[in-house]
Design goal:
This protein is of the alpha+beta class and 408 residues long. The chain is built from 14 helices and twelve strands.
C-alpha cells in the first residue's frame, strides 16, 4: 500500500506533467469506449436488420448447392412437399426454435399496364412473417394479409418507378419451373422500405400460395428458422446438421451472418477502424507515460541512489515507478470514464440520425454503454502504462549507487 501512497505523492508533486499525461490517457480511453459503444449499437442494429428486417431468421435450410447454382437450376434445388414435411418433423423436436417458415424466391417482370421492369420477390406465409418481423421497424411497412391471397407488398423505389400505390393492380410475369410463361394479377396492399438501396427498387413480397401458383409448384426453396436466443445459433445448427443428415436429401444450413453480406462488410469496416483507433491510442499512451516516467526517473536519480544505498532492491525501484504509472493510468481512465458517459448521454439525448451508405432509410446515432468493454479498456490502458514505465525504471535501477548519488 505504501508504494501507491508514494506514487500518489509523486504524481501530486509533479502535478502539471501528471495532469497532461492523465488527460492523454483519458482522451484515449474516451475515444476507445465511445467508438466501441457506437459500433456495438451498429452491430445490434445490423443483426436485427438481417434477422428480422431482411427476414433471414437465424438459420436457413436449403438443398446443398442451392446458393451456388440455385439461380440457374431452381427446380433441381427445390424442396418438395415431402422434404418440407420431413424437415417440419425434425424442427418440432428443437426447443430453442421459436418459428420456422418456408420461403420461395421468384423473379420476372412487373407491369402497370403501360411500362414494366424486373422484380425480385419472395413468397412467404403472412402470419409467419408478422412473427418474424416482430417489433422491428414497423414504420417500414411490408406486411401482408393472410385473408388477401393476391395482396402484395412493393418496395418504395419500385412503386415510385411504376406509379404504384395501395390498391393498384399490377401484373407479375415469370416462367414456371417447367419453362412455361405465366402471369397473375396482384393487388398492392403495402408500399415498404427494404432498408437497402440495392433491393429497394426491385423487391416485392407476395403470399407463399401466390408465389407457388406463379411458378407452378407445391414446394419451397428454403426454410427460415427463428430462434428464441441468437446465441444458440451455432449450437442449433450443429444439432440440426446431424438430424437432417439422416433424411437422405442433401441439405445445408447457413446462418444469418453467412447470408447477410451487408452485415459482414460493415462489420469488417468498423473492426478495421476500431483497430486503427486503438493503435493510435496505444502509441499516445505509451509515448505519454514513457515521457513522464523518463523525466521523473531523471529528476529522481539521486533519490533512487539513496534508496538503493539504504538497501532497496532493484526490482523494488521498478515496482515503485510501475505503481506510479499504474495510478496515473487509473486516474486518467477514471476521468475518461466520466467523459465517456457524459458524451454518450449527450449524443443519445441529441436525437441525431444519418443515412449510412447503401441503405435507404435513416438510422439513429446512438452510443451503447458496454461496461464490460469499458472495464477491458481500463485494464488494457493500465497494463500499457505499467509496461511503458518498465524501461526507464529498469534502466535507472541498474545504475551504480555511487553514480546515482553523484548525479547532477
Amino acid at each position: 500500500m505504501y508504494l501507491f501512497k508514494m506514487a500518489l505523492r509523486n504524481i501530486i508533486k509533479n502535478f502539471r506533467r501528471s495532469l497532461f499525461t492523465a488527460l492523454a490517457v483519458a482522451s484515449g480511453f474516451a475515444a476507445i469506449t465511445i467508438f466501441s459503444g457506437y459500433i456495438h449499437n451498429v452491430y445490434g442494429g445490423l443483426s436485427d436488420q438481417a434477422v428480422r428486417g431482411e427476414g433471414l431468421g437465424h438459420l436457413t435450410i436449403v438443398k446443398r448447392g442451392y446458393f451456388e447454382n440455385g439461380t440457374l437450376e431452381a427446380k433441381k434445388y427445390l424442396l418438395g412437399a415431402d422434404d418440407l414435411r420431413r424437415i417440419d418433423d425434425v424442427l418440432k423436436t428443437e426447443p430453442e426454435i421459436e418459428l420456422w417458415t418456408p420461403r420461395l424466391a421468384i423473379s420476372g417482370l412487373i407491369t402497370n399496364g403501360k411500362s414494366s421492369t424486373i422484380f425480385i420477390g419472395e413468397g412467404l406465409v403472412p402470419a409467419d412473417e408478422l412473427r418474424l418481423r416482430g417489433t422491428f421497424r414497423p414504420d417500414r411497412g411490408g406486411t401482408l394479409n393472410a385473408q388477401n391471397p393476391s395482396g402484395m407488398a412493393v418496395a418504395s423505389d419500385l412503386a415510385r418507378q411504376l406509379g404504384l400505390k395501395e390498391g393498384a393492380s399490377p401484373v407479375l410475369f415469370t416462367t414456371t419451373f417447367e419453362g412455361q410463361a405465366n402471369a397473375l394479377d396482384a393487388e398492392v396492399k403495402s408500399v415498404y422500405n427494404t432498408g437497402i438501396t440495392a433491393t429497394n427498387d426491385k423487391a416485392v413480397l407476395v403470399p407463399l400460395d401466390f408465389a407457388r401458383r406463379l411458378v407452378d409448384t407445391d414446394g419451397a426453396d428454403r426454410v427460415r428458422i427463428l430462434l428464441h436466443d441468437i446465441d444458440d445459433t451455432e449450437k442449433v445448427r450443429s444439432r440440426l446438421n446431424n438430424k437432417l443428415g439422416a433424411m437422405g436429401t442433401p441439405l445445408e444450413i447457413r446462418t444469418w451472418k453467412e447470408l447477410s453480406s451487408f452485415y459482414s462488410h460493415v462489420k469488417g469496416l468498423f473492426d478495421t477502424i476500431f483497430v486503427f483507433i486503438f493503435c493510435i491510442v496505444f502509441v499516445i499512451v505509451i509515448m505519454s507515460v514513457t515521457n513522464t516516467m523518463s523525466m521523473s526517473v531523471m529528476e529522481r536519480t539521486r533519490e533512487i541512489g539513496t534508496l538503493r544505498a539504504l538497501g532497496m532492491k532493484r526490482w523494488h525501484i521498478v515496482k515503485l515507478f510501475s505503481a506510479e504509472a499504474m495510478v496515473l493510468a487509473a486516474l486518467g481512465s477514471a476521468l475518461g470514464l466520466v467523459v465517456s458517459i457524459a458524451v454518450g448521454f449527450a449524443i443519445n439525448a441529441a436525437g441525431l440520425s444519418y443515412v449510412p451508405p447503401n441503405t435507404s432509410d435513416t438510422v439513429p446515432l446512438l452510443v451503447d454503454f458496454v461496461y464490460g468493454r469499458m472495464a477491458a479498456a481500463f485494464l488494457c490502458l493500465v497494463f500499457m502504462a505499467v509496461a511503458a514505465a518498465y524501461l526507464p525504471s529498469a534502466g535507472a535501477s541498474r545504475r551504480r549507487i555511487v553514480d546515482a548519488l553523484g548525479h547532477v
